[in-house]
């Protein structure tokens, strides 16, 4: 879950960065915001880690969401702004040569 960590004023049509409570992702996972809208004022479009661009092979910490204002209003600290879907990556890193099946 993505929980707001600050109070933010948001206008309809405005695109804004909002701090959330930290979400730590394990290595070899992908995080995709759920397409459904969970907040009456804001709709989460994407997430950002506090380290900037990160390799998927390393653990990461998500600290911000980029949200689009659907209505004019407030996002308050503690509000649920969205849900984060986390998927494992199913690569075999040790495979060195292709195998014909």
UniProtKB/TrEMBL annotation:
<feature type="domain" description="DUF22">
    <location>
        <begin position="1"/>
        <end position="73"/>
    </location>
</feature>
<protein>
    <recommendedName>
        <fullName>DUF22 domain-containing protein</fullName>
    </recommendedName>
</protein>
<dbReference type="InterPro" id="IPR002572">
    <property type="entry name" value="DUF22"/>
</dbReference>
<dbReference type="Pfam" id="PF01629">
    <property type="entry name" value="DUF22"/>
</dbReference>
